[in-house]
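Good morning C.,

I know you're traveling, so I'll keep this short. The sequence:
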Amino acid sequence: MLNLAFVKKELQEFVKTPKLFIVLCLFAFFSILSPLTARYMNELLATLASDVQISFPDPTFRDAWIQLYKNTTSLCLIVYLIMMTGTVAQEKSKGSILLVLTKKVSRFQFLLGKFVAGALLWTAGWVATLLIGGLYTQILFHEVIYEGLFLSVVLMWLMGLFYTALAILASVVSKTPTIAALLGFSGYAILNLLNVSETMATYNPSGAASLVNGILYGTISSSIGLICLFSTLAGTILVFSSSYLIFKRQEI
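The tokens, ready to paste straight into the viewer:
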């Protein structure tokens, strides 16, 4: 059962510390930069290579979405992941976890509260990205909606939830935030290497990073996207459950 008081405490920590500010600023920055890059990249390249005749295709709103997805699944996601990997390990190293677990907060409620708070943080960043990025794309290209947009948005959101669970797992098995960050980043790198083919990406919880571009151009069917959606959801539940089983048996 979810302990709302503990979730509220975690959210207040995001506000008191720079975490919420960093996430929102980072996501907002790239949601503005992505459409601008897509729109003016040709002019920039032409200026830099003025002595070479190069013909570039005219940019479209799809290029803005590609940039947006690319930036979100790279730097934005990495920063968020590393930030979340310290959520349990930091309390272990400080010893504050003992105080929390003796105040009528079970170990399951502790981990679930961490996950829900992290999920809300990711959701806030992703919603900000969609609103700001969508607005700038509409202004620059006068078009923003494409077939499969809703599926792409949900896939990206679920992928963030999966990495939230992965960050908690890395934090649970680590004794220090530094080790947790290294484990979390290693997991991110390995999962992205598995996206080398459409088949592997379909069943990979991080497959949304590569599948959304195919959905954008209509080269990937919605059925493949739905398979990835359920794979990501199953992976999130599996990783979080593993975190709890390990955490349940740990000596604090």
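Safe travels,
E.
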